[in-house]
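Submission sheet (multi-component)
Chains listed below:
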Amino acid sequence: AQTVTQSQPEMSVQEAETVTLSCTYDTSESDYYLFWYKQPPSRQMILVIRQEAYKQQNATENRFSVNFQKAAKSFSLKISDSQLGDAAMYFCAYRSGGGSQGNLIFGKGTKLSVKP
Amino acid sequence: NAGVTQTPKFRILKIGQSMTLQCTQDMNHNYMYWYRQDPGMGLKLIYYSVGAGITDKGEVPNGYNVSRSTTEDFPLRLELAAPSQTSVYFCASRLIRGYTFGSGTRLTVV
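Outcome: structure written.
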């Protein structure tokens, strides 16, 4: 079975600085997808970024980028120029590719605080 | 386009009571999922459906039941509520690539 591990329960960053959230996963599959979701206090699950395992290029979305190391099974999220609105829980998630039912497997999350 | 709508947003149940959490999507997505999120934890899959009339168990199905009579609706039934079912429940749907989550239902069993 696949597992997702987020080893940092809490992180803190100064406004305008850069922070990296860690995620490792365990799988024997070669076809899969990885995601970072943001959950603010409103509880809404917001997709931050998505990475296909077959793509070597790291995904980027504005201030958010990932460092995808397939051999090491590592998928870290870098937030540049941190803003107060980035404060939230961040979840790393895995989804099998191919003909799977497509459910997401989540890590336990990292709570990010942004200091003004 | 409302996306995924969950009702109610909050509910307090007494031990042994039953209730149904409603989930409706208007995007014609085939795949739908129910997750629960316990404090300090990520989301865990309760049940999922790949289309109308087809459902299957996820990681934590005990104490729950689902049905999928239409593409739009995927209700989650709690029978004989227990304190261990106190959680936040999320419904989600998926077409091909992207997931859409509802805003969640906070359920407390006392």
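Remark: The interface with chain B takes residues 4, 9, 42-45, 47, 50, 91, 93, 101-109 of chain A (CB under 8 Å).
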